[in-house]
Amino acid sequence: MMQSAALLSYIAFKLSGEIVRNKMVVFAALCGAYLACAGSAHAKTFEEYLASMDRKPVTFSGKIFYNDSNFRFYSNAGEFFTATMDAGREIRERIEDECQEGSFMIDTDELCSIKGSGSVEIRGSDIRLSIEAVEGLETGNQ
Asked: Is the pTM of this model over 0.70?
């Protein structure tokens, strides 16, 4: 595949110098070279993909609560994740105090709103949000 891409690139170079008037031929040769290179790209395995996404930086906003020594985060799309609090002691204690939820039934409208940045942690099928910085924290309607 790479040899054909190189050949098509060479042809495009030659054609661009000799047949300047026929831009469509040059364009077609360049498109062919691009497609030949794109077709030969190695698709990642599932494991490689997960490893490439692990510890990637993210920004987030949603709802958070603390219950039974665990932090839980709800994205704005309603997706639920366990959260690791790496933003420091002050913010961790504030969330533990202000965003504690003891009920089995959770009304997300009553949870604390949070906005910040962190990273994604992937361990097998477990996906966590590592909260590293908090830009805003508002107490819910508790």
From this structure: no
